[in-house]
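Notes to self, Class I SAM-dependent methyltransferase:
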Amino acid sequence: MDDQVTFDPHLYQGTAGYYERFRLPYPDAMIADLVRRAAPSGRGRLLDLACGTGQLAFPLRDRFTDVWAVDAEPGMTEVVRAKAYAVGADHVRAVTARAEDLDAGPGGFELIVIGNAFHRLNRSLVARRAYTWLKPGGCLALCWSTSPWAGPRDWQQALDRLLRSWQNTLGASGRVPPGWDRARQQDPDHEVLSRAGFDAAGCREFSVEYHWTIPELAGHIRSTSFLPPSVLADHASEFDAALRDELGRHTADDRLTETVDFACELARRTAPA
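result:
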């Protein structure tokens, strides 16, 4: 099945600082569960594809002697380099490249992780290439989380309406390809991985209650592909005011409560008998 949906590789240009500050970290329980299930040797190599600012690479780094953090956006990999230097993680290597174009040898990684990004990649191509990059017995982990505007609470629905309105106002409604999620619904990730040769190793879900402030939400929105700083531009102050007006009526103690759902789907390259 042809699931190719093309995303502009520059959608996240200028978002790295906001991505680092306002994207929620994966919960410790999920990281611990991933380590338990993938069972890295402590001497292997990790590949974080479409890594953002290293939301998976850094919490996993101590389990590996070599870490590749790969992202197509130079701003993201610049932040990864700065973070690695700041914490003395000399074994974390930032690589600026599209996942589809990465030059990596066969059988070199114990674990490959992709966080909130598989849908933006050529899934079939990346799955096939990831299979060859893994050692026999190695794992691919697809990790993701829900977004604050996608939930059932009144403030989340109000936020969703506001964001859609501003995307239309600023001519940004086409930045994300229309129907981008249709292929994923018709051809789920686990089937894409199966065709590439992977064996399913289970999906685990984790829920965390988070209390947003409105300024935090404004920063989080600037970390997205659909309303980044380059799109808000001269309208940023006006947008922030509209956000305060719309969400202020829903706050309790200046906070907006969300149940954030995280998940990690694991697939394994079967070791030969």
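- The radius of gyration is 19 Å.
- The mean pLDDT is 95.
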